[in-house]
Amino acid sequence: MGKVLDLSEENYALLMRLAPDLALMAGNYQSSLDQGMDLYLEAIEQTPYTSLVHLTYYFSHAVGDYPDPDAMLRVYHDSRQIDVLDLRQSTLPLQRWGLNPTLEQRWRINLFLSKWLRYCVAQGHSFMHENQIVNRELSMSELS
Known about the structure:
Layout: H1 2-18, E1 27-31, E2 39-46, E3 50-61, E4 64-76, E5 81-88, H2 103-123, E6 132-133, H3 140-143
Antiparallel strand pairs: 1-2, 1-6, 2-3, 3-4, 4-5
């Protein structure tokens, strides 16, 4: 169990390097680099001690954008840990774990997340308030 908790804490530290103001963020964010894929973060929900976050790359396909890896994370700011709620990816053979993953499955899931977050940090990705994606329709006065 200790190794899973260590990875969960490591993942929290890595995510905080990517998004230091995560507890204050809301909505959609994009991190773009000169070379490499854009990384997307959606801060879905904020409570006093947690954040619900969606993190992914989007690959373009003929039928639309395909998220991979695609992670839904519950971030615990008070205990400085991350719980992986869902993780879909096609690179490594992670089996679906259902509602109650085994300790070994949790370790593999957190290890994958750790390697991915470490790669994103090494690439130079970061999420700040200035790279928030604002989706809104222009009002009639802005069109004229």
